[in-house]
Every structure is written in C-alpha cells, then in structure tokens.
Design brief:
about 120 residues; 2 helices; about 20% strand
Length: about 120
C-alpha cells in the first residue's frame, strides 16, 4: 500500500479531492460520502499502523472529526464526528458499516466561513 498520500493540487478555495490510492473501494466510498456531507476530508499525519483522515466542515459550527484507516489494509477502522463547536458529545463508530452509518447521520453545515452566530442553530447560509 502506498503510504505517501497527498492532496491533489487544485484551485484555491475549490473542493480538494484527496488521493485514495491504496485504500479499499469501500473506504474510498466512505471518504466520498464525507465529501458529499461537506466534511472536506484531508490526510492527517500517519501514526504507527494507521492513517488518519481529518474531517472539517466550513465555519465554527460545522461538524469535524476523523476517520482512522489501517495503513497496510487500507480499511476503515473507526471514526469520530463532533457536531460543531457547541456539540455536547462526540459520536464514535467502529468498523466500516458503523462508520458509514455515522456519516449518513451527519447533516451538512449551514454555517459559513467567518460565521459569528452564537450557536449552530443560529447559523445562516
């Protein structure tokens, strides 16, 4: 498996598709689902036997978290999603099916860059 993952260079401000060489087709589908939910996945630093994909929606009230992938297998191991800065608890899932289900529950953020609303419920697109 290729462990030197990098973002594909694109126009600044445009959505960046990450290089998914070496991951399973199911893992690639989960990452594409995260993109569709507005979570803007990017590669984080490798750690031991795992790779981390960082999730970060636009604005301070957007969801954020990470997906952990096996460095050799390319399979999704677990994920954590926090529903914005005013969330009470992070939501966690272990295993590919549970991670997919977790991401299906994520609501795309109505928050925008530079949002100064008090909470996520007060965000305006």
């Amino acid at each position: 498996m290729n462990t030197t993952f990098a973002a594909v260079e694109q126009v600044p401000g445009a959505a960046v598709a990450i290089d998914l060489t070496g991951v399973t087709a199911y893992t690639a589908g989960i990452v594409r689902l995260a993109e569709k939910k507005g979570l803007r996945p990017t590669w984080g630093q490798p750690h031991g036997r795992t790779l981390r994909i960082i999730l970060n929606a636009v604005g301070p009230h957007g969801a954020f978290g990470s997906i952990v992938i096996g460095r050799i297998s390319g399979k999704v191991l677990r994920a954590e999603v926090i529903d914005g800065n005013d969330a009470k608890e992070p939501r966690r899932a272990t295993g590919t099916n549970a991670v997919r289900a977790l991401l299906m529950e994520v609501t795309p953020s109505a928050c925008s860059q530079g949002c100064d609303a008090e909470s996520s419920t007060a965000c305006r697109p």
